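Re-run with default settings, no changes from the original entry. Doing this only to confirm the output is reproducible before filing.
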Amino acid sequence: MGRDADVDQIVAAVEAAEKQTSAEFVVALEPQSGSYRDIDVLFAAGLNFVLLLLAIFSPVTVDQQWFPLNQAILFGLAWGFSAHTPYVRRIFCSAERLEQQAIEKAQLLFHDQEVSQTRGRTGVMVLVSQLERRVVVAADSGVMRAVEADEWEAFTAKIQMAYDGKDLSATAAKSVQDLGDFLAEPLPVSEDDIDELSNVPTLH
């Protein structure tokens, strides 16, 4: 994903947004926010169970000598297929889990990228996670004090609804642009404003 990301587009959006507001934006693009290994195991085990049922109830005679090996091979192939197919994981994961994984990833990156270390506590982490199809915005206390909680919730929900799960770079750039417009009034640029955080997105 890193090679496909339009870094310049995101950097330009961050620089433009930070000319409107004292908020500091950090962007991260992730192919997925969780491991979901349990989903891969359940998918592979489910297919093995189906194969077992077919072997038991099918009128076709199954060679019992090779059956265990066939099951082992199917398990491995199914596991690998699930691990490399986001669609499978999305089918077997609840919307609540997908959302929670993205939120936890955003919170982790918020601390790892030192977003909370700005002078006015105005850091904002914008995470776009592809598998979960989520845009998560985590803001520091200075931002949350400047805006009404219900307005912030409605605005971030609008950002999420605009994401179609396709172009991560364009989504990140548009999200930052919209955040810059939204925060321009409650958090205007101060005379001594400096760029405290990196404008280059984190890519994995």
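Helices lie at 7-18, 37-57, 67-83, 86-92, 95-112, 141-146, 149-161, 168-183. The mean pLDDT is 91.
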